[in-house]
């Protein structure tokens, strides 16, 4: 997601950072805030530190747990034992990150790093220049966000085995590049030529890098599979909407690119999923533009976010009749094979088109996959996709498990239950408004409106817990609880092991519940990752209490009273997002995004402060000083 501005830098004023907080949902559907208030009047729906949850709400989670864990090695307090970062430690110098005394970090692959050694001249933050478009197409981009590490492993190991048994020292790292403002990326507030636009476009997208650990630490190494995927890279479409006329332009241009790559996910078969979020901000109008109802539902406007691409690149001009459907080609989840640089990134249309924040995949008891996805805008929805075939069977047949199945949207009920509503043309309500299934998927938001889906407080990341349940981060409190709040973590448990059409929900944690304790306080929960042992890592994006910058906190979800422990605090005006680790969990990776909002007067990260060098997004490699896993 794009962070809220928490400084007065003029660099920050040129980008529309509040679009996600402005709802485009005119459905009038009953919002989650009202449902929670009704539920609270019936019984408590909170668990953890807020209040003891009612037995009816906790029963599904308890049923999934291993009873031995209640008194065995995963007893309360066992999983998270590191010393948390204090407010005093984190506010001494906010030009560089602060990490727990039990850990070290290495700043890695900052913006401008060649994707292969010697591929191009690096950009090191020199204030008097920026990369050329050609250089940028061979460098790590700007706006580091979602990510995943794919360890090198023998071919006979399938995806899950690769993640568990692969190399801890070598593999492919996929990193999203969500966005970079014009002043940060170009050194000017508005592009003056197509060359400027190409540079801006080439710092967006995805980096796929081969990395290796030696006695010097981690380095980028050569690989035929290393590559940059930008908004001008060739891509493919698959699934029910792939051949829809709504994805074709009179210009006949081939499908190109991915943009505003926010959160991410990974598949059991070993591929990377990158999520297109605020794609609407890159489109604009060179003439009079009156958005249709469906265009307005996706936030398309005459000025976009001020990138100015539409002035020099016709693909992004909403008034150019030759490219009338170009905007429909964005807002998808894109699958990338990290170990095959020749395979086209593929947009999986069965997963629906909206502002995808992230995706988490669970395997059902019969071997199918369920994919959980949030639509990151105020008053938008939670979605699930359920594949038609078991994933191993689909792969054996040479087809994608993500191309055939059912897309659902969530309706929450005030008794603590919920329903997954299928978005299919078989429903008469949808058949009356849409020509076919492809049109439903392309305009999934509009279809979900019709079915009465529940508007949420900006659904962000999703992650699958050790017990099989799903955690969802909601960045905004949105008036759900008295006095508002700064976001919360939701937990859902599907019937029939992710294969069912109903679920039970609880509030796992309210960020506002931590506000009174400086050692616990965090706001605006965003990035999320649940590790195989039961730890939950949360990255934040927004103004933090007690003068803190954005941070990473860790929960022991197996504890009776889960409380956050502060692992890391970032630099001024950044966002901390993305999380992945090596198979042994002794090395973790996370990202510092838009440090200082690009203002060198605030920070020069990853370099020490000099007040001049342009700050650059970078990955942090985190390792424990002694034995143990990251977060333990």
From TrEMBL:
The organism's superkingdom is given as: Bacteria
- Pfam families on file: PhoX (PF05787)
The family database entries (InterPro entries) matched by this protein are listed as:
PhoX (IPR008557), TAT_signal (IPR006311)
> What PROSITE patterns does the annotation carry?
TAT
Where are the annotated segments for Disordered? Answer: 1-30, 116-138
Task: Indicate, by first and last residue, each region the UniProt record lists as having compositional bias (Basic and acidic residues).
Answer: 13-23, 126-137
UniProt xrefs under SUPFAM superfamilies = 3-carboxy-cis,cis-mucoante lactonizing enzyme (SSF75011)
- The protein's name is Phosphatase
In the record, what lineage is assigned to the organism producing the protein?
A: Bacteria, Pseudomonadati, Pseudomonadota, Alphaproteobacteria, Parvularculales
């Amino acid at each position: 997601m794009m962070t809220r501005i928490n400084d007065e830098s003029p660099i920050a004023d040129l980008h529309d950072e509040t679009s996600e907080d402005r709802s485009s949902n005119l459905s009038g559907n009953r919002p989650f805030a009202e449902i929670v208030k009704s539920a609270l009047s019936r019984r408590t729906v909170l668990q953890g530190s807020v209040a003891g949850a009612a037995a009816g709400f906790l029963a599904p989670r308890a049923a999934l747990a291993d009873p031995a864990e209640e008194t065995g090695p995963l007893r309360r307090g066992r999983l998270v034992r590191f010393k948390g970062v204090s407010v005093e430690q984190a506010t001494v110098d906010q030009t560089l990150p602060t990490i727990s005394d039990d850990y070290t970090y290495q700043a890695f692959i900052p913006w401008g790093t060649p994707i292969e050694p010697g591929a191009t001249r690096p950009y090191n933050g020199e204030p008097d220049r920026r990369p050329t478009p050609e250089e940028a197409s061979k460098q790590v981009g700007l706006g580091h966000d979602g990510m995943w590490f794919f360890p090198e492993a023998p071919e006979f190991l399938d995806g899950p085995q690769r993640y568990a048994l692969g190399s801890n020292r070598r593999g492919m790292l996929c990193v999203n590049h969500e966005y970079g403002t014009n002043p940060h990326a170009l050194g000017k507030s508005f592009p003056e030529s197509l060359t400027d636009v190409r540079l801006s476009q080439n710092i967006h997208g995805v980096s796929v890098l081969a990395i290796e650990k030696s006695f010097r630490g981690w380095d980028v190494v050569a690989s035929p599979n290393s590559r940059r995927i930008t908004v001008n890279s060739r891509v493919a479409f698959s699934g029910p909407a792939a051949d829809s006329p709504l994805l074709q332009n009179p210009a006949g241009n081939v499908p190109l690119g991915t943009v505003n790559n926010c959160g991410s996910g990974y598949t059991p078969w070993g591929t990377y999923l990158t999520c297109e979020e605020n794609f609407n901000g890159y489109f604009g109008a060179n003439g009079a533009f009156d958005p249709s109802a469906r265009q307005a539902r996706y936030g398309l406007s005459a000025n976009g976010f001020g990138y100015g691409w539409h002035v020099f690149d016709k693909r992004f001009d909403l008034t150019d009749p030759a490219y009338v459907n170009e905007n429909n080609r964005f807002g998808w989840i894109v699958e990338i094979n990290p170990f095959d640089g020749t395979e086209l990134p593929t947009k999986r249309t069965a997963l629906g088109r909206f502002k995808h924040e992230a995706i988490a995949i669970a395997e059902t008891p019969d071997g199918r996959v369920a994919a959980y996805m949030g639509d990151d805008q105020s008053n938008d929805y939670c979605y699930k996709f359920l594949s038609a075939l078991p994933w191993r069977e689909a792969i054996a047949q040479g087809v994608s498990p993500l191309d055939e199945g059912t897309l659902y949207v969530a309706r929450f009920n005030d008794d603590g239950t919920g329903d997954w509503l299928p978005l299919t043309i078989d429903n008469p309500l949808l058949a009356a408004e849409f020509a076919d299934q492809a049109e439903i998927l392309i305009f999934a938001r509009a279809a979900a409106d019709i079915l009465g889906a529940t508007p949420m407080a900006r659904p962000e990341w999703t992650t699958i817990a050790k017990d099989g349940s799903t955690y969802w981060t909601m960045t905004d409190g949105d008036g759900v609880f008295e006095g508002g709040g700064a976001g919360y973590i939701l937990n859902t448990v599907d019937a029939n092991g992710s294969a069912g059409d109903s679920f039970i929900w609880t509030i796992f944690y309210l960020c506002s519940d931590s506000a009174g304790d400086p050692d616990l306080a965090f706001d605006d929960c965003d990035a999320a990752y649940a590790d195989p042992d039961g730890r939950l890592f949360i990255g934040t994006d927004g103004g933090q209490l007690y003068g803190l910058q954005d941070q990473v906190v860790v929960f022991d979800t197996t504890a009776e009273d889960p409380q956050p422990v502060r692992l890391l605090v970032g630099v001024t005006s950044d966002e901390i997002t993305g999380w992945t680790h090596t198979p042994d969990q002794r090395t973790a990776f996370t990202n510092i995004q838009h440090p200082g909002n690009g203002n060198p007067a605030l920070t020069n990260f990853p370099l020490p402060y000099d007040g001049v060098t342009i700050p650059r997004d970078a990955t942090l490699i985190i390792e424990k000083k002694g034995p143990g896993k990251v977060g333990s």
